[in-house]
Design a protein that fits this description.
By secondary structure, the chain is of the alpha/beta class. It has a single domain, classed as 3-Layer(aba) Sandwich (Protocatechuate 4,5-dioxygenase, Chain B). Helix content is 32%, strand content 23%. The chain has an eight-stranded mixed sheet with strand order 6-3-8-2-9-1-11-10, with helices on both faces. A three-stranded mixed sheet has the order 5-4-7. The longest helix has 16 residues. It is globular. The structure holds 3,4-dihydroxybenzoic acid and fe (iii) ion. The site of 3,4-dihydroxybenzoic acid has 12 residues, from loops.
């Protein structure tokens, strides 16, 4: 059966794409963020996952307010990125793992998650940037399964539901008849708010508590409603729901392999964490 070999959670500010394009990784502004990735790249060289299951939120490229599924999964042979309005360069297309997509979909529906299935799916910066941070040469050595979580049209799925959703994804991966090594990515957050009176809002204390909870109390954040999360983390900080989904794919104790936290990148408290099964 397939095995989850790691969970990597990270922020996904669009400006990271511009910094990659302009080779600014060593620039004093960007270095504290990009320095979080060489240890993870070393881990990837050792562990060599075959498939990425990436949990992220679409920002209006593939879904908009007219059609906004709470949860959606790609089941396509490949995924392409497009300019979604930030002007960041697109990336080489990402090969999909259709068999795992259909397997996860079937298991989620049986587990009472009515997920939307997309045989065509554009992927935005929330999917592409973590991939480019892990594999800077942008020659993808993995196949992908994108899973999107609504973080834009309220009400959002509750944190509790996101946790259960992650557990169901984890069970589905663990029952996939293959010896594939799977890396689960959670993309989003941490605290940030892009507009309105609290534009620029960051809550370092909450972010650090949330990061601690990811290590050994992953259900901690399930106590919060969507509006609690807006209050604590800002309107866009709710993207941390993707971290919760990803972490819940291995719901027990895990080993923290690497962690990085830096405030701010653009408007965002930028964090990265890598976990392994114990
Ligand atoms: C920023 C952060 C995001 O998560 C996003 O999707 C867009 C912009 C920012 O901080 O600039
Ligand atoms: Fe975002």
């Amino acid at each position: 059966m397939a095995k989850i070999v790691g969970i990597m959670n990270t922020s996904h500010v669009p400006a990271i794409g511009g910094a990659i394009h302009k080779n600014l990784q060593q620039d004093p502004y960007w270095k504290p963020f990009f320095d979080g990735f060489p240890p993870i790249q070393g881990w990837l060289d050792r562990v060599k996952p075959d498939i990425v299951v990436s949990v992220y939120n679409d920002h209006g490229l593939n879904f908009f307010l007219d059609k906004q599924p709470t949860f959606a999964i790609g089941a396509a042979p490949e995924y392409t990125s497009e300019d979604e309005g930030w002007g960041i360069p697109t990336m080489p297309s990402f090969p999909g793992d259709e068999d795992l997509s259909w397997h996860i979909r079937a298991n989620l529906v049986r587990d009472e998650f009515d997920i939307v299935t997309c045989q065509e799916m554009l992927v935005d910066h929330a999917f592409t940037l973590p991939m480019a941070l892990l594999w800077p040469h942008q020659k993808w050595p993995v196949k992908s399964v994108p899973i999107s979580v609504n973080t834009v049209l309220f009400p959002l799925p509750t944190a509790r539901r996101c946790y259960k959703f992650g557990e169901a994804i984890g069970r589905a991966i663990a029952s996939f008849p293959s010896d594939a090594k799977v890396l689960v990515i959670g993309s989003g957050g941490l605290s940030h708010q892009l507009e309105g009176e609290r534009a620029g809002f960051i809550n370092k204390a909450f972010d650090l508590k949330f990061m601690d909870s990811m290590v050994d109390d992953p259900m901690w954040a399930t106590q919060f409603s969507d509006l609690d999360l807006v209050e604590q983390t800002g309107n866009e900080g709710v993207e941390l729901l993707s971290w919760l989904v990803a972490r819940a794919t291995l719901p027990g104790r895990v080993k923290l392999v690497h962690s990085n936290f830096h405030i701010p990148i653009s408007n965002t408290a930028a964090a990265t964490m890598l976990f392994e099964p114990l």
